[in-house]
UniProtKB/TrEMBL annotation:
Descriptive protein name: Glycosyltransferase RgtA/B/C/D-like domain-containing protein
Residue stretches spanning the membrane: 6-30, 50-75, 95-125, 146-166, 229-252, 264-284, 290-307, 314-333, 339-360
Organism domain of life: Bacteria
Keywords: Membrane, Transmembrane, Transmembrane helix
C-alpha cells in the first residue's frame, strides 16, 4: 500500500484496496480451476468452475474479511491472493511465478508460506522423483535441472526472503523475529507458552472445527431467545460458516486422473493446519475462524477434483454457505442482526441457487466419472499454450486418445 499512499496521501482508501484483492481472488480461483479443466485434472465445466469461484468469494469467511479494510484482514486477503497465484502458476508450470507467489505470501503472513510445499512437490514430480513404475517407487530424477533453471526459479523467492530478513532486522533487531514474540511480552503476559506450542492445539481446534453459535436468553422464562453469531468474538467452526465443506466428511471423493496431486493438496493442508493450530491465539476478534482461511483455496481445488458433478445438494449447501456469511458479515461490521436483512439475503440466495441449478442442468453435456487416460507427467509450459494440442496429437498417434471435459470417453 505504501506506493499508493505516497501518491494519493489521505485520499487512498485501504477499504477499496482490500476489495480489489478480494475480487481478484475470485477471478484467480476461477482461472486456476480452468487450468485444471484444460489439463484434464478435473472434469468440471466452465459453468461449474464459475459457480465454485463465486461460492468461494461469497460463501466463505473471505466475504467479511474483504469488506472492512482493517490491516489484519487486508493482510489475510492479500496472502490468499498470493496462495491463489502460487497454485495457478504451479498448475500452469510457470515456476518463477510460483516461487514469486510463495514470496508474496511470506511477506504478508509467514506461516502460510508453507503452501510452497505444493509447487515443490509438483516440480519434483515433473522431474520424475517419486514416480511409480510396475509397482516400484523410483526416487531418481529422470532429468537433472540445470543451475540456470534452478536459479531462475528460485530468484523471486530469494529476493522476497532477503526483503523479509532485512525488514525483521530493522524493525525487531533479529532477522528471524516477526515481532509477535515482542508483542506478547509487552502486551500479553498471560500467554505463557510462547508464540507456537502444542498447548494451543486443542483450544484452536475447538474454535476452528467444533464451536457453533448459541442463543441468548434474558431469563429462564424468555420465549424469544436471540441468536448470537458473535459469541464473544472467539469464532465459530468452519463447518458452520461454510456448510459446503461438510461434503468432505459425508461423501466419498471418487476417482481423479491425478491422485498424486490430490494427495499433495491434502498433505499441504495438514502441514499448514498444524502450524495454524499451534499458534498462540485463535484469531479473536472474529466471526468464523479466520486463521484457517489460508487452506480454503486448496480445499476448493479439492472440491473441484471430486468425481461427482455439481448437483442440487451441492448448490443447496453452497447457498447455505453464502447466506451464513452474509449474516456473519453484517453481524461483524454493523454489530447487529436484523430480520429484514435475513429475509432479503434469503430471497437473493434462493434466487441465485435456482439460477445456478438451471445453468447446470442446461449444459447438455454428458458428465461421466473421470478416468485417468492421459499420462500424469505433464510437460513444462502454460496450460493454454500450443503444447496441449501437440501433446494430444502425439498421444493419438500412439493409440492413446485423450478426451476433454464434456466429451465421451472414446476408449470406453
Amino acid at each position: 500500500m505504501v506506493p499508493f499512499v505516497a501518491v494519493l496521501g489521505a485520499n487512498f482508501s485501504d477499504i477499496w484496496f482490500t476489495w480489489i484483492f478480494a475480487a481478484l481472488n475470485i477471478i484467480l480461483l476461477f482461472r486456476t480451476l480452468e487450468v485444471m479443466r484444460v489439463r484434464c485434472i478435473t472434469n468440471r465445466t466452465p459453468i461449474e468452475n464459475l459457480i465454485m469461484a463465486i461460492t468461494f468469494g461469497f460463501g466463505t469467511i473471505a466475504l467479511w474479511l474483504g469488506l472492512g479494510g482493517r490491516i489484519w484482514f487486508t493482510a489475510q486477503t492479500i496472502s490468499a491472493f498470493g496462495i491463489m497465484f502460487t497454485l495457478h502458476s504451479t498448475l500452469s508450470r510457470r515456476w518463477p511465478l510460483a516461487t514469486l507467489g510463495v514470496g508474496m505470501v511470506m511477506l504478508t503472513r509467514v506461516p502460510e508460506a508453507l503452501v510452497g510445499i505444493v509447487p515443490l512437490a509438483v516440480y519434483l514430480h515433473d522431474l520424475g522423483i517419486g514416480r511409480r513404475v510396475q509397482r516400484q517407487w523410483h526416487f531418481q530424477p529422470q532429468r537433472w535441472p540445470s543451475v540456470y533453471e534452478l536459479g531462475a526459479i528460485l530468484a523471486p523467492f530469494a529476493v522476497a526472503l532477503l526483503i523479509h530478513l532485512v525488514h525483521n532486522q530493522l524493525y525487531f533487531g533479529n532477522p528471524l523475529s516477526i515481532g509477535y514474540d515482542i508483542q506478547n511480552q509487552q502486551n500479553y503476559p498471560a500467554i505463557k507458552y510462547g508464540v507456537v506450542s502444542w498447548h494451543y492445539i486443542w483450544p484452536n481446534f475447538v474454535v476452528d472445527f467444533l464451536r457453533w453459535p448459541s442463543f441468548n436468553y434474558v431469563d429462564p422464562y424468555d420465549v424469544k431467545p436471540q441468536l448470537d453469531l458473535f459469541i464473544d468474538g472467539m469464532g465459530t467452526s468452519m463447518f458452520f460458516s461454510t456448510p459446503l465443506l461438510a461434503i468432505f466428511i459425508f461423501t466419498a471423493q471418487g476417482k481423479t486422473p491425478q491422485p498424486w496431486l490430490r494427495t499433495t493438496f491434502w498433505v499441504a493442508i495438514a502441514i499448514m493446519l498444524v502450524a495454524i493450530l499451534a499458534y498462540c491465539t485463535t484469531g479473536w476478534r472474529q466471526v468464523g475462524a479466520r486463521y484457517i482461511y489460508a487452506i480454503y483455496p486448496l480445499l476448493f481445488l479439492l472440491l473441484a477434483q471430486r468425481a461427482a458433478p455439481l448437483d442440487t445438494r451441492w448448490v443447496g449447501l453452497a447457498g447455505m454457505s453464502v447466506f451464513t456469511n452474509l449474516l456473519l458479515a453484517q453481524r461483524f461490521w454493523e454489530d447487529k442482526s436484523s430480520i429484514e436483512f435475513m429475509a432479503g439475503s434469503a430471497g437473493i440466495v434462493l434466487l441465485a441457487c435456482i439460477v445456478a441449478t438451471i445453468m447446470i442442468r442446461r449444459q447438455e453435456q454428458p458428465h461421466e466419472e473421470i478416468v485417468p487416460l492421459v499420462p500424469e507427467m505433464v510437460t513444462v509450459g502454460s496450460a493454454y499454450s500450443s503444447e496441449s494440442t501437440s501433446q494430444r496429437a502425439l498421444l493419438e498417434q500412439e493409440g492413446v486418445i485423450p478426451y476433454q471435459p464434456g466429451e465421451r470417453n472414446p476408449q470406453s
